Amino acid sequence: MGSSNFDVIIFGAGVGGCAAAAVLGRQGRSVLLIERDWSMPDRIVGELLQPGGIDALKKMNLEWVIDGIDGIDTYGYAVVYNGKIVHLPYNSADSSVHGRAFHHGRLIMNLRKAAKESPNVTCVTATVNELLRDEETGRVVGVSCTDKESNETLQYHAPLTIVLEGLFSKFRSQFVKSTIKVDSHFAALILKDAKLLMPNHGHVILSDIAPILMYQIDPQDTRILVAIKGSKQPSWNSDEMKEYLNEKVPAVLPEAIKQPYLDALRTQKLRSMPSSFLGSSPNNTPGVVFLGDAFNVRHPLTGGGMTVVFKDIDLLSELLDPSIVPDLRDFDKVAAQLKKHHSLRKRYCIAVNTLAQSLYALFEASTYHMKILQRGCVEYLQVGPQNYSEPIGLLAATLEDPNVLFYRFFAVAFYSLRVHARSLGWAYAPVIIYDSIVTIILASSVILPYLISEFMA
Ligand SMILES: Cc1cc2nc3c(=O)[nH]c(=O)nc-3n(C[C@H](O)[C@H](O)[C@H](O)COP(=O)(O)OP(=O)(O)OC[C@H]3O[C@@H](n4cnc5c(N)ncnc54)[C@H](O)[C@@H]3O)c2cc1C
């Protein structure tokens, strides 16, 4: 059994692990980055980075990782509702505000390059099996892992271990209080040479079925993600699922997308991922910090995951800068800075997380009263920049203010009631009053539990 010492051990060389290794290595920390598989990942996740995520990369001098990977700039969203397009630009006056969509694996390979080229970073191929603890204090002092080549068990020690092992984290339950919740899945295909209604925009198709997302990820490929309700892994062979994918989905797609979708369905293997929520919760064990999807997850509808990860890493590197914490063995100082991190990250993660959860609830609307909210939401955004600029700023994560989310969400709810009343006519006053009460209660039940739990965490 071998053993070595570092300042920081990071495991998981995915979105967050690589960024963290690159930045901390540049700060002069000796970093060990452990990954079980360094080959290019082929995944259906993390393919659109919001403008706020690009800003975080810039702050870390890592913005080049989204270049040279055949990515596609995105300037906002097109929401297709009952055949009509609602255009929601990030910033119509400033084209420098943009996101970028790409093949996830290509981004990861650039991030890994950044980590490997950073000074003071050692990379190894191994699977972490255990977090080592000091028997007396319970503090995490390092990891035990199996080396891929030799199959040997190796132990590495460091005053700080950063766990960035992703959504299917196996250590989370030992350290993090919150539990993960899955309420839907995304089924994924690649559309070949599809012509989107608004090039360089993410597309959201709203209809009687759950929402469908599309964004072009390279000059030929467009990702389509079809939401499937339910917490269970979809069974592709059931008659119901076949009818859903072969008939219901194409029926709501724009004409130009139908054939590429049917071709993809015929020729590709469907893949899926759970759409999960894991609220933030402080982890109080000294010597370890959980970040990324191992720590905090929101619905992928709004493409906010990588943005939160990059913002978290940027903030962490600021708080642990050697000018503030010269020695990571100063455990009290590190604990104080991690506490600060937990509280400061709320300014962006509350808005991104709550928006993702509440928007999905509105967009998959399956009940009569949710549909009132859904229609009101689309019509509210359609009014113009005075209504959509702040919500799209929250989604882009360029606006970090949960109060704005609260205010805008209830503005949408009350607008929905106006739209509903107008469509029924005041002859239906008793129905309108009843629907208004139910809809406001429903709106509150959609947003408040997330807002409150994220604030209190
Ligand atoms: C369907 C779907 C679509 C999404 N789309 C978007 C999007 O468009 N935009 C966006 O911003 N976010 C999106 N997300 C979320 C985003 O993908 C995640 O937030 C992000 O990938 C999390 O990064 P991470 O570093 O925590 O984990 P990952 O990037 O998953 O990295 C984890 C790494 O840890 C390694 N690992 C795991 N266990 C071990 C171990 N024991 N030992 C060693 N190594 C280990 C893995 O091999 C992997 O390399 C999406 C999520 C889903 C489910």
From TrEMBL:
Classify the protein's membrane topology as the record does: Multi-pass membrane protein
Q: Which cofactor does it need?
A: FAD
**Which residues, by range, are in coiled-coil regions?**
none
Tell me its family. Belongs to the squalene monooxygenase family.
Where is the chain membrane-spanning?
A: 426-452
Q: Name one GO molecular function term.
A: squalene monooxygenase activity
Listed A to Z, the keywords are: Endoplasmic reticulum, FAD, Flavoprotein, Membrane, Microsome, Oxidoreductase, Transmembrane, Transmembrane helix
Q: PANTHER family under this entry?
A: SQUALENE MONOOXYGENASE
Origin organism is Tortispora caseinolytica NRRL Y-17796
Q: What is this protein called?
A: Squalene monooxygenase
Q: Where in the cell is it found?
A: Endoplasmic reticulum membrane; Microsome membrane
Chain ranges of the Squalene epoxidase domain: 157-433
Q: Which InterPro entries match?
A: FAD/NAD-bd_sf, Squalene_epoxidase, Squalene_monox
What catalytic activity does the UniProt entry give for this protein? squalene + reduced [NADPH--hemoprotein reductase] + O2 = (S)-2,3-epoxysqualene + oxidized [NADPH--hemoprotein reductase] + H2O + H(+)
General function of this protein = Catalyzes the stereospecific oxidation of squalene to (S)-2,3-epoxysqualene, and is considered to be a rate-limiting enzyme in steroid biosynthesis.
